[in-house]
Amino acid sequence: MTTTSAQTTAGASQEPGPAAGRTRRRAGPPPIARGVWPLLMPAMVVTGLLVFLPVIYTVWLSISERQPSGTNTGFVGWSNFARMFEDPQFWNSVQVTLFLFIVCLTVETVLGLALGFLLSIDVPGRRFFQGLMLVPAITAMVAVALVWLLIYDPTLGAANQILTAIGLDPVVWLGDPDIAIWSIAIVDIWQWTPFMALIIAAGIRSLPSEPFEAASIDGASGWAKARRVGLPLLMPVLSVAVLLRTVDLLRFFDTVYVMTQGGPVNSTMTLNVFGYRTAFVDQQASYAAALQLSLLLLVVVVAGFFTWWRRRLSIEY
């Protein structure tokens, strides 16, 4: 009788019960997921039309010759791209774009780390200061550029008044080719450093406390804990902030066009501004299309590198 009872129990244990059946059903996609694609298709179609059709048209425009009258004279192959690589203004615009990208990204990251650390400290009024620091980033770039035009005014601007008050000579901020590009960089740093700081501050507050406590027990100083513990843990968040700023900096347009339109003497002519002026001022649409494709390629390559770096950091940490 005991043997029969044990066999019955063993047989019952081998039979799939309700829980096992539920486990097998959960292994597949949930029922609601099977009807998701029909709901997503309209949005995917619209997105594809808005993204891929302009790119395809730009490619066709770059390998053809469009006259200012609007007529297309036909296929010209890679002549626009060959002209682009032989154009010294193209290389100047690439140099200006990369200069602004490197300078602004470096300064904004370093200052963002410092401000992010200060914003991560729980002090009275922290939320108010966080909201206040976000104002430059949410303000339209055109409005920011117009305000800084007034600040940089050679006679009435606040920048030269401050220099005069401390005994220095006034500066032609946007009229000197050697200073204009730095003036543009200052505007971008002022506007977007708080944005970097807020992302970094949120990342700092989300870090686990155990590694820092272990470092304190080992006798590490505050600087050593920040450099050897905090910064490596913060790298995934920092890489996201850097990636966001990378895409914006390579497409630098609004501030430059409003403040200098690429001058003086093309010293602030970014690749995006150069392409715009080529298309709408010089009326060379096909050549401008080739320039914009080169900008697209530059954004894809640099953003792809930072995306690879971010994924590698997420795997390591």
Task: Give an account of the 3D structure.
The protein has 317 residues and is an all-alpha fold. It has 2 domains: 19-75, no CATH class; 83-316, MetI-like fold, CATH 1.10.3720.10. The chain has 15 helices and 2 strands. A two-stranded antiparallel sheet has the order 1-2. Strand 1 (64-66) and strand 2 (72-75) form a beta hairpin. The longest helix has 32 residues, at 88-119. Residues 1-29 have low confidence and may be disordered.
Mean residue pLDDT: 85
Helix content: over 70%
Please mark out the parts with pLDDT under 50 across 5 or more consecutive residues, or reply none. Answer: 1-29
Query: In order across it, which strands form the biggest sheet?
Result: 1-2
Tell me the radius of gyration. Answer: 28 Å
List the helices and strands and how they pair.
Blueprint: H1 2-14, H2 18-27, H3 36-62, E1 64-66, E2 72-75, H4 79-86, H5 88-119, H6 126-133, H7 135-138, H8 141-151, H9 158-165, H10 177-205, H11 210-217, H12 222-250, H13 254-259, H14 271-280, H15 285-316
Antiparallel strand pairs: 1-2
Helix pairs in contact: 3-15, 4-15, 5-10, 5-12, 5-14, 10-12, 11-12, 12-15, 14-15
What key phrases describe this protein's structure?
74% helix; mainly alpha; MetI-like fold; 317 residues; disordered N terminus; two-stranded antiparallel sheet; 2 domains
In short:
This protein has 317 residues and is mainly alpha-helical.
